[in-house]
Amino acid sequence: MKILHLIYDHIYNPWVGGGGAVRVYEIYKKLGNSHDITIVSGRFPGASGYIEGNIRFLFLGTDKGYVRSTFSFAWQANRYIGRHWAEYDVIVEDFAPWNPVFSCLVKNKPVVLQIQNYMGKEILKKYNLAGLPFYLVERFYPRFFENCVVLLDNLNRRFHIDGAVIPQGIHDEHLEEDSADGHYAAFLGRIDIRQKGLDILSDAMRTAPVKLKIAGDGRDRTRLLRMLEDNPSVEWVGTVTGDRKRLFLRESSFLVVPSRFEGQGIVVLEAAAFGKPAVVSDIPELRYAVDAGFALCFKTGDSGDLAEKMRRLLNDETLRNEMGLKAREYARNFTWDTISAEYACYLMQVVEARQG
Question: What's the number of domains the chain is made of?
Fold first, then answer.
C-alpha cells in the first residue's frame, strides 16, 4: 500500500511530540519494509524533510510559534491532499480539533480518521469562549468519516462512532528486562500543566512522602519549574529518550499519571512492561489499568487523594510487587509487532472494501 498519514505532532516537535507521534512512528517503522509511507507533520524550529527507510517525512506550515504553526499546518495539509491524493491508496488523518485537515472531502480514496483522545468540556475550561469552535469541531467532525480508528472503545462512546479499536503498543524487549527500585515516583510525558494535571501533582507533593522525578518537556516547562522550585523532593530531569528513558522507567517505584484527559496513555503501558504499577486519575480512558489490577486511581483534580494513593503505594512493597507482576503480564498483549500488524490489516481491509 501507499499510505499518506497526516499528523501535526512529530517525535522531535518541542511543542507537541507526545504519544500520538510515538504511535505513528513505531507503527510505520514496523510497516516500512512492506509499504510505501508518507508522514506529513507540522513544521517546528529546525524541522526539515527526511527519509527513513521507506518512510518519507514532510513538514508543512510555519515554525514561527506553536499557534501559527498548528493553524498553518491545517491549511497547507489540506492543500497537499488536494494536490496529491491520487498518489496514495489510503489517507489517514490523526484528529485534533485545533487543526482538522478535512481529508473527509476526498471522495475517490478510502480515508481513515485516527482518534487519540477526547477533551470535551476541558476545551471550554481551558480557553473559555475562544475554545467554542474547537469544542464543536471535536464533537461533530469525526461523524463525517466512514472509517475511524480509536485507541479505546470508550472513545467510540465519547464520539458516538463505531471505530476499529487498535490500542497503543510497547517494545517487547522491555518485557524481559530485570526491574529495579530507585525509590522514586515517575512522571513521564509532555509538560502541559492543564492536560497532564501537573498542578495537581505539584500540590500533592507538598504532603506526599515520596521523591518525584519528572521527565519530559513542553511549552509549560518554565511555569512548571517555578511551581516546583521550593520543593526539594521534586526533580525535573528533562527529556529522556532511548536508554535514558528505559532506565528512568526501569528504576522507578511507580508511575504517576494525574491527567485531566488522555488517550490510552502510552506511558502507562511502557511502565507496565517494566513491571511498574501506577497511580492514575479516575478518567475513563485510564480505567483499563485499574481494571487490570496494576493501578490505583484517585479522584481527578483532588491533590489530597493523589497524595494518599502515592503514600499507600510507596509504603506497601508487597502491593507494589503484586501490581507490578500484573502490569507486566498485561503489557505482553500490546507489543508494537502485534499492534502494527493489526493496524496494517485494518488499512488493507479499508482499501479492499473501496476497491470491491
Answer: 2
Instruction: Report which residue type is found at 53.
Output: G
**pLDDT more than 90, % of the chain:** 78
For residue 61, give the DSSP letter.
S
Of 14, 2, 22, 83, the residue nearest 42 (C-alpha): 14
Spatial separation of the C-alpha atoms in residues 283 and 290, rounded to whole Å: 11
136, 284: one domain: no
CA gap 112, 161 in Å, rounded: 13
- CA-closest candidate to residue 52, choices 19, 82, 11: 11
In this structure, how many other beta carbons lie within 10 angstroms of the beta carbon of residue 165?
A: 17
Q: Give 88-104 pLDDT, tens digit per residue.
A: 999 999 999 999 999 99
Q: DSSP secondary-structure letter at 4?
A: E
Long-range contacts made by residues 148-152, C-beta under 8 angstroms, separation at least 24? Answer: 148/112, 148/113, 148/114, 148/115, 149/92, 149/112, 149/113, 149/114, 149/115, 149/343, 149/346, 150/114, 150/115, 151/115, 151/116, 151/117, 151/263, 151/264, 152/263, 152/264, 152/285, 152/288
**DSSP line for 266-311:** HHHHHHHHTT--EEEE--GGGHHHHHTTSEEEE-TT-HHHHHHHHH
CB atoms within 10 A of CB 120: 13
The CATH number of whichever domain residue 99 belongs to comes to 3.40.50.2000
